[in-house]
Each structure stands twice: as C-alpha cells, then as structure tokens.
Amino acid sequence: MGSEKMFIAEFHQRLVDAKDAKPKEDYYCPACHERLILRRGKCYLAHFAHQPHSRCSVSSEPESREHLLGKRQLAHFARVAKFQPVFERVYPEFNQRADVVLPRATRPDLIFEYQCSPISHASVLKRTSGYENHGLQVLWLLGPRYQVKRLKQTVLERFARFHPAVGLYCLYWSTRERGIIIRYHIRDRGDGTLTYMTQTCRSWSTFCQLFRRAHSVSEWPIDATRFRLRLQRQLFSGDRRWQALQRQCYPKHLNLIGMPDAVFTPLLTSLPLTGIGAYLTRALILVQLAGNERLTNPEFQQLIERANALAKPYNYVQRSARLGERRWQKIELQWLLQTRCLNEKATGYSCHLPTWYTDFNDWFKQTG
Ligand SMILES: [Zn+2]
Questions:
Q1: 229 in the Ramachandran plot: left (φ > 0), alpha (ψ -120 to 50) or beta?
Q2: 98 in helix, strand or coil?
Q3: Coil, strand or helix: which one is 22?
Q4: The pTM is what?
Q5: 16 C-alpha to ligand 1 centroid (Å)
Q6: What's the gap in Å between 51 CA and the centre of ligand 1?
Q7: For residue 75, how far is its CA from the centre of ligand 1 (angstroms)?
Q8: Residue 237: in which H helix or E strand, if any?
Q9: Residue 233 Cα to ligand 1 middle (Å)
Q10: Tell me: domain 60-215, CATH 3.40.1350.10, correct?
Q11: What's the 53 CA to ligand 1 centre distance in angstroms?
Q12: CA-CA 20 to 30 A from 275: which of 45, 54, 155, 209?
C-alpha cells in the first residue's frame, strides 16, 4: 500500500488531473483523504502519490510508468469512440478504484482495468466480482509483461472470458500500437499448450465488430496422444489429485489412461471445450456409466453432477469464463448421445460403454 501512483486527486471538493495540477497546492486522495505528493518531471508522466507509510486501503496496483501511460492512452482511445472516460473512479461501497470508467446511458458502465504487474487469481476474482455485484462490467486489459510471452494456462485461468463469436479470449493493451490486442478462439491442444488467433484493434468499433459475427466453431480436435501421456506423467509423478481420480476407476477395474477414444469425439458447439477438465469430465462420466445398463433421468442427472464435481478442480477455464453448469451438462449429454454411449428411452437412457484400454501401451498398439 502507499506505493500507488494516481492521476486524480481531490482539490477544493473537485477532482483534478495531475497534468493540470500546480505545485505548492494541497491535494488529497479521493479515497482515504490523506494528503498527496504531486510529482512532475521530464522523465515521467505527472502523477500523485501517497506519502511513504500511507495506510490507504483502496488500491489498484503499484503503478509503473507503463501503467500510467497505458491508462492515458486508454482514456484517449475511449474519447475517440465518443465515450467520456473517467479516470480512477473510487467506489467506496466495495473499496475499489477503477483505472478507467466508461459511463454508458443504456447499459452498465464499462470499466477498463489495465493490469501490468503480476496479480493472484484470488485478487482478479475479488475485483471482478466487486464490480459485477454492483452492476458494472469490467474488461481486463493486460500490459506488456503479458504480451511478450506466449499465452499460458495461468493467464487464461485468471483473465479469459467467453463470447460465442470469438470463443475464449484474452485482451491486451499495447502502448506501442495504441490498440487493443485480442487473442481469441483459444484452444488447448491436450497437453496444456494453447493455440489461438490474434488481432490488433486500433479503434473501439473494430474491436466491437469482432463480437458481432456470431458463429459455431467445431471443437479443436485434441491431440489424444499428448493428453494420455500427460495423464500418465502426472500419475507416475505421484500427484495426489490425479491419483484421486484414478481411484474412481479401480472399483470398475478401469485405468484412467485407457479411457475410450469416444472421450475425444469433437462436437459442433459454440462453447469452448478447452482445457483438460472438459475431457476429464467425459472420462469420469464414462467411468460412472460402467456397470449400468439403464439409467432413469434423476440417476443420470446425479451421475453427471458427480463427474462434474470430481473434475471441477481441472475445469478452471470454464469456471473463470463463467459458463453455467447447465450449459455444460447439455453439451455433455449431446456428446453421450452422439457417441451412442447413451440412447434415449421413454423413461431415461440405456447405456453402452465403449471399449477401455488397459493402459497407454494397449491403446497405442490397438490404434497406432
Ligand atoms: Zn488514499
């Protein structure tokens, strides 16, 4: 705390931008009302800072030059699009300061959070739900440190959102290009490596256009070999969470690594089936189907909920993109019917379990 730099301060009951502020006046933090230091210089953008050892608790992130510059550019970007952006609005109700707010007349206000420093999953969730619980919409735009690297699962987990037109996506703000970079149609190849498309949008309208083309996309065909090998590696390394999943298989005399190929059958869907969680869920559904000939509707419901609960720790992408459980269950049912693991009957389903392999080598021999 206290290391935060800001553009906006209170001055005689008004809010003043640091670039218009004069030295030797008294400026105060709009959140904690402590006196601030005004810093102006040739080497950095004018800004306010708390005194050392400040106890201000409304913080966004310790700001770098990159962060200040990005915020200025984002506000400009919004102004060109006819918004009237507001810097650093403080929401005392939930103790947060938004980087840039775009007030909207007929829809919830939109917030740009420009994230340059590392941040934990929990903090992103907390800030996001802080806004959303108060009827605000938030877009996280990631800074340079996130752009230089290839997209990683941990970033996806924290920041990915879902839209039918672009699938799973992450947003970036490029201070160099002065535009929003979007990585979209993000897919997991099965071993944790990600594929995606990239586009730079130098105007708000270009950005919005991307979201207007709604279309279904087929699931990315996952690389089943990589997926099984990864599973095998995790189990051999003694990972407890994976071993807990494997234990679900023992009573049925099955081996998780030998899951049927049906698990990897692609569906045509507008939802992103990505991440190992989705495939683990399918495998766990089949494990539980084993030994059943018929299921009533409530039995089926229970079974599918149980499989989802077991795979939940691995379904982080689906969770962070906030897709409802119901939508997933519908997709899982669609997949079971398409692969004929289930057939619809008058009062439920009949089950036909596909072949399981004994282990990786068995699968390799029979399919390779
Ligand atoms: Zn303060």
A1: alpha
A2: coil
A3: coil
A4: 0.72
A5: 15
A6: 9
A7: 22
A8: none
A9: 49
A10: yes
A11: 11
A12: 209
CATH 3.40.1350.10 boundaries in the chain: 60-215
Residue 97 Cα to ligand 1 middle (Å): 10
- Cα–ligand 1 centroid distance for 110 (angstroms): 23
Neighbours of 306 (CB within 10 A): 14
- Match 């959070």 to its residue by tokens: 113
Please give the span between the terminal C-alpha atoms of the chain, in angstroms, as a whole number. Answer: 58
Residue 141 CA to ligand 1 centre (angstroms): 24
CA 90 distance to own-chain centroid: 25
Distance, CA 124 to ligand 1 centroid (Å)?
A: 21
Using the mean position of ligand 1's atoms as its centre, give its distance from the Cα of residue 30 in Å. 7
Cα-based distances in Å from 56 to 17, 34, 63, 153: 19, 8, 15, 33
- Only one residue has tokens 């829809």, namely 107
Residue type, 256: L
Span from the CA of 96 to the centroid of ligand 1 (angstroms)? 11
Q: How far is the CA of 50 from the centre of ligand 1 (A)?
A: 7
pLDDT in tens, the chain (368 residues): 445 678 888 898 888 899 899 988 999 988 888 899 998 887 778 899 888 888 887 765 566 778 888 999 999 999 999 999 998 899 989 989 999 999 999 999 999 999 998 888 888 888 998 999 999 999 999 999 899 878 887 788 789 888 878 888 999 999 999 999 999 988 776 666 788 889 999 999 999 999 987 655 555 566 788 888 888 998 889 888 888 889 999 999 999 999 999 988 776 554 555 567 778 889 999 999 999 999 999 999 999 889 888 887 776 655 555 666 677 788 888 889 999 999 999 889 999 989 999 998 999 898 86
